[in-house]
Specification:
Blueprint lengths: L1 H29 L16 H8 L5 H11 L18 H13 L3
Helix pairs in contact: 1-4, 3-4
């Protein structure tokens, strides 16, 4: 039983990293990487910077989902982000959760 309890954090980390990898793949497939990168500014901000900005903000997910759904302007400079209408609501949720997870 002890060995099972000791491996639970490892199992959780593996499961979470698999989900994060899947969401990075969704971002690549959806064309997000044309304007964003995880760790550096491209056209839009680095997702790690977005995660840091909203860390601890209970409305972070809703804010990011809204930006994906409706586009945004002026949050990160002069270049607007167009609405990502080709994404489903579920995909927007997954991408928002992925970005937020980069602050943890």
């Amino acid at each position: 039983m002890k060995s099972f309890l000791l491996t639970m954090p490892a199992v959780a980390a593996i499961l979470l990293s698999g989900a994060a990898h899947a969401d990075l793949e969704l971002a690549k497939k959806s064309g997000c990487m044309a304007c964003h990168a995880v760790d550096k500014k491209v056209v839009g901000p680095a997702w790690q910077d977005v995660a840091a900005k909203y860390k601890g903000d209970s409305s972070a997910k809703a804010t990011i989902v809204s930006s994906l759904e409706n586009g945004s302007r002026g949050k990160w400079g002069q270049v607007p982000m167009p609405a990502q209408k080709r994404l489903t609501a579920e995909e927007r949720d997954k991408l928002a959760e992925y970005v937020i997870s980069l602050a943890e």
